[in-house]
Amino acid sequence: MEKTLRIRRPDDMHLHLRDGAMLHAVLPETARHFARAIVMPNLVPPVVTSTQAAAYRERILSALSQGADFRPLMTLYLTEATDPDDVAAAHGAGIIHAVKLYPAGATTNSQSGVRDFDRVRGVLERMAEIGLPLCVHGEVTDPEIDIFDREAVFIDRVLDPIRRATPGLRVVMEHVTTSDAVDYVLSGDETLAATITTHHLIINRNHILAGGIRPHYYCLPVAKRESHRLALRKAATGGNPRFFLGTDSAPHPDHRKESACGCAGCFTATNTMSILAHVFEEEGALDRLEPFTSLNGAAFYGLEPNQGHLTLTRRDDPVRWPEKIDTGDGPVTVFDPGLPIHWHVDD
Ligand SMILES: NC(=O)N[C@@H](CC(=O)O)C(=O)O
Ligand SMILES: [Zn+2]
Ligand SMILES: [Zn+2]
């Protein structure tokens, strides 16, 4: 039976748009459904100054097709040399909406990230004063720590000390993958929130490793065991306004993923809204899809909800999407949820 759901147009609060040919190829995939996105700054070289953020925003706007209704919300990449005055000026001018913390070496293009957290204390204190959110890739990089434990250890060793030392700092734990992170968010106050990706609601670590290694399911933080996936589903669909969508859609050309040392990232921009409707229906929480995708994130970032709407219809025939997106850097594989999805996004 057909079922219809009308929601405010969604925001993607964690997105990789890249640059150049890749930007041109992937931007329409997001702009088709999403009205805004928090755009990650991990370009090569990274977006570290307000001038660079403004220039990157212009490149995104000029890559948009005519008539597209999409607003990029820019971020700065925090380094040990970041100038608190530049951050505050960029925020005051409306150029940036967050600063992104990558522990050096934690993920794709994080080599310019932070090694000594004491060195960014001044920036964090200024951000707390002006109410500018810090988005955190929450994994320790200590090689002694098992990759499946790196998020939980980061909370104890790095994040909780930073939050205690910087009262009032608004923090978004990005792409949470564990029940530990969910519990930590629930234990926090209104200054603490988390994004949850689409793919972490679908896959656990077996999808990556059992029966053959599947590079297109490899991302960071890596998917954990099933109990964690279930905790994420509960958090996403549970109605707490401090959990919201950040797809972490992260395009890499196939030749970089299907390799002896494949890089991390799942590309989900194309089919995210259909997959999420499926997940929320399975959890008996379709009425909570709109808060998760379109209201909670905006509220945390101090933005009005989008004016436009998106309509999803459940039909008997499954949704079709291209297996790959062609880009100037080679094909990018679209995330495969591994099951038929029946929620069509209406044009
Ligand atoms: N999530 C990923 O696996 N990859 C992201 C980086 C990130 O968000 O950590 C990327 O830029 O490719
Ligand atoms: Zn990350
Ligand atoms: Zn990311």
From TrEMBL:
The modification N6-carboxylysine is found at residue 100. Residues 12-311 form the Amidohydrolase-related domain. Keywords: Hydrolase, Metal-binding, Pyrimidine biosynthesis, Zinc. One of its GO terms (cellular component) is cytosol. Zn(2+) 1 binds at residues 14, 16, 100, 248. Catalyzes the reversible cyclization of carbamoyl aspartate to dihydroorotate. Belongs to the metallo-dependent hydrolases superfamily. DHOase family. Class II DHOase subfamily. This is Dihydroorotase. It comes from Albidovulum inexpectatum. The gene is pyrC.
